[in-house]
Fold ErfK/YbiS/YcfS/YnhG family protein.
Amino acid sequence: MTFNFQYDKHSPREMDEFVFVKMAASIRKEPNSNAKVIKSAAYSHKYRTTGIVKSNTGNKSDEWYEVFFDNQIGYIPKSAVEKREFDWNDMMAKVEKTNKFIKEAVSANKKIYVLDDYVPLGGGESGKRDKFGNRANQSEFGYTDKSFKDYINIPDRTIMIVEEENDKYVKVKIDAYDNGTYYLKPSTKRYLKDAGITGEITRFIYVDRASQNEMVIEKAGDNWNVVTSSFVTTGKDAGNSFATPYGTFLIAYSKPVMQYTGSDNKAVVGDAKNAVRFSGGGYMHSIPSLFEPKNTREQRKAETAKKIGTYPESHKCIRHYDDQIKFIYDWLGNSTPGHSEGFRVPSVPTVMLVK
């Protein structure tokens, strides 16, 4: 894998493993509370780390993270930070697994389908979380056997193949969910659409919800290259909001502006630019903001931007810095110029992997 970034304004370097500061703390010259303070670490700051060390004096059970900054080494209490990472290994494992699934399907002359049942401003029930943490919102039930009792929630835009079909069920195989076999009720078949995938996927967007970051890669020849990376904000599972779903999703389309409604789901109250739909009403997009009050809109957007890379906070979508998502929006391209609604289907099939 190469790192020839096409856009790197928000791409951290040498941060494969890092700590996120969850409470203000002092970074000290040695791993003990009496050592000299060499830097004050504020909330949301991030530092490269090599791992945990034990205190070198006093309470030997105290643990500290060794961190790097400004060509210095320091130590910060484990209790003040969260360990996070840019998980390149997991990303590539998922990329290879997804493409293996696709190649085997294509070799066997099996059509690849995508679940396509999104209704704008719809969404249905939230329901209980399944074993993958996904709720029923903007999903269909995938039953574990023909009895139609136990099930998982299959989110919109999930990739699958049909293994068997009759008047009682549609048996599908879904790589993202344990490479498992699931049974759909016949009425669900109408939501399965031809994914238009005829060979391996050469573009992936990988989102890590635990570390609140994202990597974008593209294949050129036999090699994968990192196009860009950044911190992001994913969805929070609470009340009227949902966690960004876990899975493998075929990007549907992009559009210049995504509008959203208030709590009544009727009046449009705000928007975000450069929106890329990946599952149900889940979009990648710029910093969202309410239209009113107009005079504080930019200030409010700036405050929201400060929270990127901290904790899940969106309603399901993935928030980006404005310029970061504009780059991705342009990079995805447009195979449907002149679309009546301005929708831009990516120039080549592009898959989002959500960890």
The mean pLDDT is 94. The chain has three domains: 17-85, 108-194, 203-354. The first helix runs from residue 88 to 107. Residues 203-354 form a domain with the L,D-transpeptidase catalytic domain-like fold (CATH 2.40.440.10).
